[in-house]
Amino acid sequence: MSVRKSLGLSFLDRYSGLIITIGSTMVLARLLTPAQMGVFAVTMVFVSVLAGLRDFGASSYLIQEKQITDDKIRAAWMLQIGIGLFLGLVVAAIAVPVGNFYGEAEMTDILFLLSINFVINPIGTITIAWWMREMQFDRIAITRFFGAITGAIVSVTLAWKGWGPISLAWGSLATTLASILLTTLLRPANLPGRPGLKEIKKVTAFGGKLSGATIVNSMAQGAPEVLIARFQGVTDAGLLSRAAGLAGIFDQLIMNAVRQVILPLFSRNLREHKPVEGLYFKGVELITGIGWPFFAVLAITAFPVIRILYGDQWDGSVAVAQILCLAAAAGLLTGFAQGIILAYGKVGTILFLSIVGGFVKLVLSFIGAYFGLISMGWLLFLHALVFAIAWMVFLSRSIRASNGKLFRVLGKSIVLTMATAAPVLVIQHFVGFGENMVDLLSFSFALSMALVMFVVAAKAIRHDVYFELLNMMQMLRLMMSNKR
């Protein structure tokens, strides 16, 4: 399967899920209060930390392994099943202590429910890992879409009936069950039908370091919400979670789809002894060329966007959301760094950077939680900027990339960002976007002008984004002509 087709299917997968997620989130944001969302967000931090162990790197091992055998597949599956059972028991065991620590009985109920996810999730994960290795993203897209729509229906229905934050936990469980159903029905006939232990040492040796990095990343990712909830209360945790969710839209729009392809793509190129430097530079130019203008516009228009998506009860998240947009923009510099380094098999490098970065983020989160949301936002931006540079240094060394060429690529994206954001800044300064949603016209006009300037500037500086847009237009024309 070609790179463009793989990315296209991956984007289809993510966009279909994203449309469902945004739609359900808009409804849930009006059915649940910031405090209720905060309860679920903080609870999910504990689950996310343990989730880093759930796969134990088994899926990544299968994707990047050069010589795959039935014994290796069986060993990876056995590892996932064993870890899933163990983590399910751990989540159930911490349910009562966590609820007591925060004084929120609903957290206990949510954790008991989510413990089931850990036990049943391995049923379908080995199939998805195989599809990713073979770059069969169409099947992954179908499975995830079915899971997303099922989970959204369950969450919204239960929230509408007044179940509160546990409705989100039921939605998560429904998503897992729906995905298991599809992976079982579409499971490849050549996959082994039972787990095994013969190659378990090889899988564990690879997965140990990778899981360590994932756990550290999960702890660091969830630390701000956990600490804000403890120092400032669950309402502020809900506001921080909503702000992070807004800043994470690009991750759902673009980066999740890109990451899904990066590891199998670079692993395949390395197995076939093909060059990867050109892929890297093209990826950086496209990601920053799309992402930096996106975050610049989103930061400027955060207030009307939050009002439209979530309602006025989330106004308190606007300021921190603007700061987190800057942090997310910095993070784009290394959005797919881990996948590339992993393709080279340098798991130790990933673990080292994750431990150092996680420790620093934890310390900064303690400080930020004490002083409040805005301080937390600026410290998270500082962390994202510094460690984006660190990841870039290690990544450039891994693929022996030219720093001069990298700076030229980034310079083009900076120019494109400034050109795109300029009309939005002008309209905000002289007209504004209003506080009662009566100025939707100026908001819509600003977005239209930003899009126009984005295309004009991309063409003027010959940015790769412009040529990809031309390719997309050509593909659409061919599709339309074939239908006729």
Low-confidence stretches: none
The end-to-end span amounts to 26 Å
The shape, in one word, is globular
Question: How much strand?
Answer: under 5%
Radius of gyration: 22 Å
What would you say about this model in short?
The chain has 484 residues and is mainly α.
Task: Provide a descriptive summary of the structure in words.
It is a single chain. The protein has 20 helices and no strands. The chain has 484 residues and is mainly α. The relative contact order is 0.10.
Properties at a glance:
20 helices; 484 residues; mainly alpha; 0% strand
List the helices and strands and how they pair.
Layout: H1 3-31, H2 34-54, H3 58-64, H4 70-102, H5 105-120, H6 122-133, H7 137-160, H8 166-185, H9 200-231, H10 234-247, H11 249-271, H12 277-300, H13 302-310, H14 318-331, H15 337-343, H16 347-371, H17 373-399, H18 403-430, H19 440-460, H20 464-483
Helix pairs in contact: 1-7, 1-11, 2-4, 2-5, 2-9, 2-10, 3-4, 3-6, 4-5, 4-6, 4-9, 5-8, 6-8, 7-8, 9-10, 9-16, 10-14, 11-15, 12-14, 12-18, 14-17, 15-17, 16-17, 18-19
